[in-house]
Structure prediction request, 115 residues.
Amino acid sequence: MADAPLPAADGMLQVVVCYATDRDEFLRPLQVAPGTTIGAAIEMSGVLEAYPDINLSTQPVGVFAKKKTLDTVLREHDRIEIYRPLVADPKDSRRRRAAKKDAAVPASGGAAPAA
Prediction:
């Protein structure tokens, strides 16, 4: 549910608050005053009302895929992102793929049997 961009007001910063679930996404353009923090912009966006399961004390946030704290001051055109917990540990997933690949490769010890 993306809203249309807002025209920039004098002295205001244009930012976007983003959150995605496995079923939908939240993109909300905002105009904020200089000095506004990530936490304040998230509260202004309405995302916490739309997704009450968001817990900012445990879920990381960031700007353009770089983790930041809630008290980080925003800059023009920042994209604020609220990250969900990982479904699977990336290291465990890689190990499973590697083990599956190794199991599929036949041992090469000699010539293939004749048919």
